[in-house]
Design a protein that fits this description.
heterodimer, A: about 140 residues, alpha+beta, Heat Shock Protein 90, 5-stranded antiparallel beta sheet, 4 helices, about 30% strand, B: about 120 residues, alpha/beta, Transcription Regulator spoIIAA, 5-stranded mixed beta sheet, about 45% helix, about 35% strand, globular
Chain lengths: ~140, ~120
């Protein structure tokens, strides 16, 4: 089964993204805690993309695809045509130093890496595809 | 969308968060805490009973105040977190850096002990 959701790059649309994910994963045997974690990771990826690659321009569109195969394997793809930022290349700062520097940011990527099994980047037909995989 | 209410009880400022905190709404939380600290409260309780969701933007707000509150001897305690919300704090290890209690009375007790 596959689901698709298209969104303009406004942070006000994040709520809709979260609802789309919850609805798509309903009835798939995902516990409330796991559901919460998956929704969180994808919210983080979308908000990062909206802010950093699209400067929250609502005319810029991103797409999210969800592919659900048997054995409770979920593949999420976030597709856009902005500048690509590979979170695998990003070295997170230690929590202590973020606290010390009174930083507000720097936590999202850490969350995504802790929650998802794999994060890959591909380029197809001039588009960036960020593919996140999670097996429950 | 998030709705934030402040009320005062026994010398503590209580910030109640109702709704969801994400990148679009974390500023509201930031302003509420800044206002509470600015008003001179040394005991701040954050009522999370109505908090349905928090993303890293909201966690970042709490994180960014840790040092400032320590310097100013202001004590902040969160209570009433739903399991899935608490889980978000725990994934990052932030649950260990913040004061979190289950109930309002436990939170009051802790903030009273800390501020002695």
């Amino acid at each position: 089964m596959s689901y698709q959701y298209n969104i303009g790059c406004s942070l006000n649309n994040l709520k809709g993204v979260r609802e789309f994910i919850r609805n798509s994963l309903k009835g798939q045997g995902v516990s409330e805690l796991e559901m919460g974690a998956i929704v969180l990771a994808l919210d983080e990826m979308c908000s990062n993309l909206m802010i950093h690659a699209h400067h929250c321009n609502p005319d810029h569109k991103i797409s999210m695809n969800i592919h659900i195969s048997g054995h409770q394997q979920f593949v999420f793809e976030i597709i856009d045509d902005g500048s690509m930022f590979d979170i695998n290349q990003y070295q997170e700062q230690e929590l202590d130093s973020l606290v010390h520097e009174k930083r507000k940011g720097g936590l999202g990527i850490r969350l995504v890496k802790s929650i998802m099994d794999k994060v890959e980047y591909l380029r197809e037909d001039g588009k960036n595809i960020c593919r996140l995989t999670k097996t429950i | 969308m998030v709705h934030i209410k402040r009320l005062q009880e026994d010398g503590a400022d209580i910030i109640a968060i109702i709704g969801e905190i994400d990148a679009s709404s974390s500023i509201e939380l930031d302003l509420a805490i800044a206002k509470s600290v600015g008003d001179g409260y040394r005991k701040i309780l954050v009522d999370c009973n109505g908090l349905e969701y928090i993303s890293s933007a909201g966690l970042g707000v709490f994180m960014s105040y840790i040092e400032e509150l320590k310097d100013k001897k202001v004590y902040l305690v969160l209570f009433g977190l739903k399991e899935r919300v608490l889980n978000t704090f725990s994934i990052l290890g932030l649950a260990d850096l913040l004061n979190i209690r289950e109930t309002k009375s436990d939170a009051k007790k802790l903030v009273d002990e800390l501020s002695v």
